[in-house]
Amino acid sequence: MIKNFVKIAFRDLLKHKGLTLINISGLSIGLACFTLCLLYGLNEFNYDRFHTDSDRIFRVYRWSEAFKDITSEGDPYLPIPLGPALSADLPDIEAFVRIRGPWGDNFVDANGQISDQGVSFADPQFFEVFNFPLLYGDPKTALANLNNLVLTEKIALELFGESNPVGRTLKIRLAENFEPFVVTGVAKNIPSNSTIHFDIIGNFDRLRSLPRMERRWTNWNHSAYETYVKLRPG
């Protein structure tokens, strides 16, 4: 009986080809749109969830109330001394990480080949607070020294090819001069559902030696750096 129903249905579809085409096309487009929306939703709901302690990691925001013609708003760009002050004053904070994303043009010299790359800086505990897997290097020591660098898999391939670049030297133009850095790790490419993105990342304290940066280390009026905190369990 089922076989007869299938035959009748198939004949009916062939008999009304135009209507069949419209129905099948509509159903296909609907299913495709539903699948895309489902994938997008799953991606959004999984944002930053790949970190082991994601439920204890927070980005610090500053909320500014409305004043005259300025509307109220929140922003994550804060002064350098905030992280150490929070850690010293609030016992609930287990660790903090300050991040400076790439600013302007950062020229990188790898074996005499100069290219424009985005260079970020973060506190040494960056790879212990955040679970960005390293293909090469130790997350506990990857940013331990001032001239350490970690590259993403993509950038390592671009600059050094297939070989393991750990121990190799890069020169990065900071201020007016090219300064030497040592590659101490290679991270897997950053997933799309991550708030934090970087190509090359170095030790945050290395910034202190740059012109005007020494004053910013204790300046509460210059806000340009993101601060993350990891809270203790409970």
What does this structure look like?
The protein is extended, with a radius of gyration of 26 Å. The protein is α+β, with helices and mostly antiparallel strands and 234 residues long. The strands form two sheets. Strands 1, 4, 5, 6, 7, 8, 9, 10, 11, 12 and 13 form an eleven-stranded mixed beta sheet that branches. A two-stranded antiparallel sheet has the order 2-3. Helices cover 29% and strands 28% of the residues. It starts with a helix and ends with a strand.
Briefly summarize what is shown.
By secondary structure, the chain is α+β, with helices and mostly antiparallel strands. It contains six helices and 13 strands.
The helix count comes to 6
General form? extended
Structural class of the secondary elements? alpha+beta
Number of strands: 13
Encode the helix/strand succession as letters. HHEEEHEEEEHEEHEEEHE
Looking at this protein, list some descriptive labels.
234 residues; alpha+beta; 6 helices; 28% strand; extended
Helix/strand layout:
Layout (H helix, E strand, L loop, with lengths): L1 H14 L1 H29 L11 E3 L2 E3 L8 E3 L6 H8 L3 E8 L5 E5 L2 E5 L1 E4 L3 H4 L4 E3 L11 E5 H8 L8 E6 L2 E11 L12 E4 L9 H4 L9 E6 L3
Parallel strand pairs: 7-12, 9-11
Antiparallel strand pairs: 1-13, 2-3, 4-7, 4-13, 5-6, 5-10, 8-11, 9-12, 10-11
